[in-house]
Amino acid sequence: MNSEAILPQTTPAAAMIRTLGLLSAICGLIIVAAYQLTYDAVQENKRIAVERAVFKVIPAAKSIVEYSALPTGDVEIIGAGGATPPGALKFYAGYDEAGRLAGIAAEGAAKGYADTVRILFAYDLATSSIPAFSVVAMRETPGIGDKILVDKDFLASFPLEAKLSADLKALANAIVTVKHGSKTKPWEVDAISGATITSRAVGKAINDAAQALLPRVAPNLDKLKEKS
Amino acid sequence: MSQQAGKMSARNWDELMEGIWRQNPVFVMVLGMCPVLAVTVSGVNALSMGLATAFVLVCSCGLVSLLRKLIPKEVRIATYIVIIATFVTVVDYVIQAVSLALYDALGAFIQLIVVNCIILGRAEAHASKNPPMAAMTNALGMGVGFTIGLLALGTVREILGAGSLFGVSLFGADFQPWVIMVLPPGGFFVLGTWLLFFAALERRKQRKLAEATQNA
Hints:
The complex is a heterodimer. Helices cover 35% and strands 22% of the residues of chain A.
């Protein structure tokens, strides 16, 4: 008994393979062409999106340089390829018109109400504080969680104090989100009542990222001071 | 000759109007509800999702129709999916090139156009049996019909839920947005209301028809 008796087949396998092969070739060509044609525009869009986000949190900045902070405690410029060594933390150094460092910015992320809230925050080196943040991506409830962008009391928590401890290993005071109206210290974030989870996510995202990044950046400030 | 041409254009018109009105994918066939409910929080999202779907519909139906004599029936579904996935990838890149903000707003629903039942349904039920011109006309009608359906939800939800239309504020700063309209339940409310409206239209038409036959 051969297989054809079990599985009646009207089209020979060769015809199927030929059709699928031809089709895959056509579709492959279309996809490659689309990728090539849109590549430059997509990369340019991504660069503009990053620049806009950084300029928003560091208003004095006119140009940015991407750096990675290595686990060894060193910093280096990220090349055109965008590859970073394992364990490195990415951050942006914003420079003003004269090429002086206006501030640094980094991404942080923490679990919010609906999904991870990803933010970009600035760090001002002169005052050791976090003057502002912006949202990179979030799926929080419209009208509730997304108040973190507009709520006056919440935004009045900034600038947040973020001084490093004496041994430069961590923040002297961890940044925490406290209940609405009970903020007393400069490193506390005043939560929005009704949107506590999202408010906490912002505080945690800033704290986690700052605790990891700032001890690596602090010893290298001289390297960052002038635009290279 | 001109009579034949007239017949052709009448047929084309028929093919086109099938998707836009008689068999509208959103309001008559109630297909593709996942993107219809999920992305219609604003007019811009609805319009771009509709255009993206229409583009994939027209291109994949055209290619399916061109290759219809070459495709063995045993592997036809696999073939359709490959073709549809190709054009979805193209749309994905194009939207990224046009606007990253729009790309983020539409999220996974761009990639999910691959499994949109309207497109697979058109490929299987129409494009695989008709010449390219008719298949693409029919697909264009379906695409436009789908876009109109999305816009009908998107504009209403944006006006009520955000007080704006295509990002332009309509009522000024004192407007208190009806937030539930841009949340998932709002999608069901607005869709239900539209379906009610079209069902009422249909009943009125039936009643008029019955009255007309009675009088005759």
